[in-house]
Amino acid sequence: MSEATKKVKEAEAILRHWREAVPDDRFAHLVKDAGRGLTRALQMRLTEHSVSFGHWTFLRILWVEDGLTQRELSERAGLMEPTTFSALKAMEQLGYVVRRQQPDSRKKVYVFLTDTGRALREKLVPLAEEVNQIALEGIDPATIAATRDMLLKMILNLAADEEKQSREERRMPSTRQISSLLDRARPARAPADAKPLALSKRG
What we know:
- By secondary structure, the chain is mostly helical.
- Among the domains are: about 1-50; about 50-120, Arc Repressor Mutant, subunit A, CATH 1.10.10.
- It has helices at about 5-20, 25-45, 55-65, 70-75, 80-95, 115-135, 140-170, 175-185; strands at about 70, 95-100, 105-115.
- The protein is extended.
- The model has no long low-confidence stretch (mean pLDDT about 80).
């Protein structure tokens, strides 16, 4: 069985799972499976140009705004800084980007596209557009527009929830604060070498 045939059978199995086994399962799982399919389709095309999906993530950000710091790239890509550092180091070796420090800020490292990295845009963006066209084939434009609006609203709702959770966490006392409060609430203990008080005698 060829790799392409294997992928088709995997997709068919996913469809059966959603339509028969768990037609009312959580929406997050459905979005994840759709995203996984889009990612695989793009990865196959990027591989033909010797570009990894991880590098694509940073390239598409830098094509929009060049000269970002490593931290800014991490935040926009939704990745940890060590992961970003490793990817940018590899991209620099491939000649896609250069990292530079500015004279006014030695602590920050800025990332700039090279001519090679910038030229990849003309080759790679059409591949992503092709994947999107394939994924949306046979779907009514009104449904596509409604789904897009729905997903954007979901993103906004989840961002608002994250902000709310963050505010609530900031209001919650830390473990150290709780421990301190408990210590103050406990009755004071007599020293181990303290002598018991003598009872006064009457009469």
